[in-house]
Every structure is written in C-alpha cells, then in structure tokens.
C-alpha cells in the first residue's frame, strides 16, 4: 500500500522546469528596436515604412549577408 501511494503522489506532482539563458533573445530584441529606428528614420513614404517594419524583423539576415559579402564568400 505504501508503494501505491508513493506512485500516485509522484504522478500528481508537476515537474519543475528551469529556464536558463535568454541572452540571445535580449540581444535580438535590442537589435530589432535599433533596426526599426534605423529604417524608419530613412523612410519617407508609407510604402517605405511598411518595408522598414519587415526589414527590422529580418535584420540578422541582412547582417549575415553583408558579413559574407565582406568576407568574399561565394553564396550559391
């Protein structure tokens, strides 16, 4: 009987999940805001503002592309 109660107690316990890290999310968030500031300052029309919003979301892709171009890596 003692084994059965121990098993049911373990089944009802919620597992504790520890989340560690999150530094990259913070860096991406700061970069996202900075990219929006950069692109929105240069936008003069509504179409350019919409484009600036989406460019701000994918700024790491532009960053990596420019890094490859500066390192002269053949992207194909």
- What is the number of helical segments per DSSP (H or I, 4+ residues)? 4
| Main sheet properties | none
Structural class: mainly alpha
Shape type: flat
The share of residues in helices is: over 70%
Run of helices and strands: HHHH
The N- to C-terminal Cα distance equals 67 Å
Give the strand content: under 5%
Mean pLDDT: 78
Cα radius of gyration in angstroms:
24 Å
The total beta strand count reads: 0
Q: Low-confidence segments, ≥5 residues, pLDDT <50?
A: none
Q: Would you give an account of this structure?
A:
With 76 residues, the protein is mostly helical. The protein is 72% helix and 0% strand. It has 4 helices and no strands. α2 packs antiparallel against α3.
Summarize the structure.
This protein has a domain of 29 residues.
Layout of strands and helices, then pairs:
Blueprint: H1 2-12, H2 23-42, H3 46-57, H4 59-70
Helix pairs in contact: 2-3
């Amino acid at each position: 009987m003692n084994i059965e109660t121990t098993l049911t107690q373990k089944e009802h316990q919620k597992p504790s999940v520890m989340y560690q890290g999150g530094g990259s999310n913070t860096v991406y968030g700061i970069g996202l805001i900075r990219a929006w500031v950069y692109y929105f300052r240069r936008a003069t029309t509504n179409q350019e503002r919409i484009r600036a919003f989406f460019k701000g979301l994918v700024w790491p892709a532009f960053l990596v592309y420019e890094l490859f171009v500066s390192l002269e890596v053949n992207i194909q």
